[in-house]
Amino acid sequence: MHSCELSGDRLMRVLVTGANGFIGGHCVSTMRQMGWQMDGVVRNGASTPAAGLHRVHTSLALQADDLAGVDVIFHLAGLAHDRVTAAQPGGLQAQLHQVNAQATQALYDQAAIAGVPRFIWLSSIKVLGEGKAGDYQVDDPRQPQGLYATSKAAAETSLLANQVPSTQLAIVRPPLVYGPGVKANFLKLMHYARSPWPLPLGGAQQPRAWLSVHNLVDLLIRLAQHNCQGIWHVRDAEQPGTSAMLQQLAAAAGNTSRQWHVADQLVCRLAGMVGRGDLAQRIFGRLTVDMQTTCSALNWQPPYTQAAEVNKAMAWLQAQ
């Protein structure tokens, strides 16, 4: 399932897809400081400049000639629900599958033709489902819930079935990633932490995996430097429940988290009645991740503490 070999400490030429996105931007910034030469794929029409890139592409539909000489591809681009609506051509399911599965496989195929040695792709822990009583393991069966997770699971299945020895494939399954520049659900949680209003989240005590973007970038670089292949789980060292994370965020904002306790079963039942059962599960449900293999195979531990990373994220938000 896993294979690792140190490739040596040298400057590399890499391609980062999603280079001006939340995670990709942090990758580009770190790798630029390391002196690596970077090509990037950015969303066409994106307003954020892609600083530090040697070559810039605006489409994932790259050909082998575009990838010649690249040592590592970090495929971080993907489509989430907040970037697509059912009214668009093909609807949610078709668009998510096309971008997250079909385009990913096509890029890997071109990388193999070009002889790119390593292909590192960002999947999601969501491919394994939600609500398991224990930690999710690398070899657990894929049981995706929702269209986004299903598209990621389809990509995993396709890549693993079509990989070639000359282009090593590393699949990384992160949980919810946070940090400066974060959007969507974690950004909402940060705003809640700054609010003076009490929230019915005192019962959200089930442990959950979280991942600082800086810990993720550190792992991605370690994978590239060690010629790694297989499926890799990663998270922060700490796995607090949503209630405890909210308390950390409130403290970072100089606020007091006011929470009142409502039975999680009741909240989930009511949320399900109004079509928000998935959101209630993400808030109140358990989602813990085993990353022992990652740590032992790579001789790696998350270098950044959750407390410090939460402070960085909140400082960024307060500076906006």
Properties at a glance:
320 residues, alpha/beta, 7-stranded parallel sheet, 9 strands
Strand order of the largest sheet: 3-2-1-4-5-6-9
Largest sheet: 7 strands, parallel
Q: What letter string, H or E per element, gives the SSE order?
A: EHEEEHEHEEHEHEHHHHH
Beta-strand content estimate? 5-15%
Rg, rounded, reads: 20 Å
Distance between the termini: 43 Å
- Counting DSSP H or I runs of 4 or more residues, the number of helices is 10
Q: Name the overall outline.
A: globular
Helix- and strand-based class?
A: alpha/beta
Uncertain segments: none
Which helices and strands appear, and what pairs or packs with what?
Layout: E1 13-17, H1 22-34, E2 37-41, E3 55-57, E4 72-75, H2 91-114, E5 118-122, H3 147-162, E6 168-173, E7 176-178, H4 184-194, E8 210-212, H5 213-225, E9 230-233, H6 242-252, H7 264-273, H8 277-284, H9 292-298, H10 306-319
How would you characterize the overall build of this protein?
The protein is α/β, with parallel strands linked by helices and 320 residues long. Strands 3-2-1-4-5-6-9 form a seven-stranded parallel beta sheet, sandwiched between helices. Strands 7-8 form a two-stranded parallel sheet. β7, α4 and β8 form a beta-alpha-beta unit. α7 runs antiparallel to α8. The chain starts with 12 loop residues before the first strand and ends with a helix. The relative contact order is 0.14. The mean pLDDT is 89.
Summarize the structure.
The protein has 320 residues and is an alpha/beta fold. The radius of gyration is 20 Å and the shape is globular.
